[in-house]
Structures are given as C-alpha cells and as structure tokens.
Amino acid sequence: MKIVMLGAPGAGKGTQAEKLAEKYALPHISTGDIFRKNLKEGTDLGKEAKTYMDAGKLVPDELTVRILLDRVGNDDCKDGYILDGFPRTIPQAEALDEELEKLGEKIDFAIDVDVPDENIVDRMSGRRACPKCGRTYHTQYMPPKKEGICDECASELIIRDDDKPETVKNRLKVYHEQTQPLVDYYKKKGVYHTVDGTAEVEAVFDSIKDILG
Ligand code: AMP
Question: Coil, strand, or helix at residue 113?
C-alpha cells in the first residue's frame, strides 16, 4: 500500500503518517526529515537544502526527487510506504508516478489532512521539536510528558527555524501556490480523499483508517 499524505505545513500530516506507519508496519518517509538529518550531519545536501528551508521555500524538484526515489528504492519499501511532505509540486508527483509506472505500481491513496490557514498559524506557534531525534510536539495539542523535554531522548526541545511566524506565512503561500494543485492531480487519478484535520488526533486517525479499509 502506497500512501501520500497531503495538507498544509502544520496540518498534522506528520503525526498521522507516523501513526499509520506503526499500524500498517510501513516506512514513514518524510523528505523534510531527510533534509534535516543531512543538515545535522553537515552533508553537502544538507547545506544546500538549508538555504531554502530557512526561507520557507521548497528545495528544488530535481534534488528532492533524486533523494526520494533513492529512498523508496530501499528494500524496506517493497510492500509500500507512507510519504509525508512529498510530493509538494506537480513535477514531483509526475516524477514519482513515472517511476512507479515502470514497476507496474501506483499510489493507492492520497489523504488530504484539511485545516484552514487561520488554524495553521495558531498551531505552528506551539510547535516544538527535538533537535536530537526529530520528534515533534505541540505545547497545547501534543505536549511532552515533561515541559520542554523530549519523551524519547530527554533532549531540550526547540522551535525549528522553519516554524518561526514569518517562515510559516511563507510556507503557507508556497503551499497554496505549488502544493495545492496536487488535490486536482490526485482527484483525476481517483485516489484523493480528504479528512477534517481540525478534529482530535485520534478522530483524524479513525477517519483515515476508515478510508484505507
Ligand atoms: P517539512 O518537515 O515536510 O515541513 O519540510 C521542511 C522543509 O523541507 C520545507 O519547508 C521545504 O523547504 C523542505 N522540503 C521538504 N519536503 C520537500 C519537498 N517534497 N519538496 C521541496 N522541499 C521540501
């Protein structure tokens, strides 16, 4: 089963992707996480991605597609995967579909976690991340057990540069201009579904499970 998670930054698609990955025992693949890991390790890829990420811009398609196709070519992806934050542009979706077509495969579900812009800005202001293991939290909706400390690895939580208010506004603009056209793209393929992302985490998860059957 191959699933694409759609939705604005901060809509909660990462949280849902993580839960789905666990339930269906599929890898959760986030291009944002791959870029951040490279950034932390100081690789050339990380350095290149940083300039775009810090500005709330998209990393160029060519680079992003290369990284993603490389990742989904791994053995652990043979039964499927959950893509979180990819594709973000029509050319990215086309590149993935082209590759899948060669293998006689396709994306089975595109799940759009729908949240209005007003809610997004509010949500992003409470977002916290662990600089060590990458896990994300929300001060109000998904707090860590101990305030400001990661449940997994006990590191001190931070506000990611790309979660700062100015960057969030940019990311929303980029989302509407470049990523939202994917709604029609996947509708045409007959795999598009939408869920109300303003509901509680567990309720959103239930809606998605109903869709996947
Ligand atoms: P995310 O954690 O998915 O919100 O991604 C953080 C940042 O990484 C984005 O704001 C982009 O700068 C970059 N990024 C992640 N995925 C993609 C993608 N599919 N295409 C282009 N840029 C991406």
Answer: strand
Going by C-alpha positions, the residue among 185, 162, 184, 186 that lies closest to residue 174 is 162
Distance 87 CA to ligand 1 centre (A): 9
CB atoms within 10 A of CB 24: 15
Does the domain at 2-115+179-212 match CATH 2.40.30.60? Answer given as no
pLDDT in tens, 139-187: 988 899 999 999 999 999 999 887 888 888 888 999 999 999 999 999 9
Could you state, in order of their start, the residue ranges of all structural domains in the chain? 2-115+179-212
Residue 47 annotated among the catalytic residues of the structure? no
CA angle, 164 as apex, 176 and 93 as ends, to 5°?
A: 35
The CA 110 to ligand 1 mean position distance, Å, reads 18
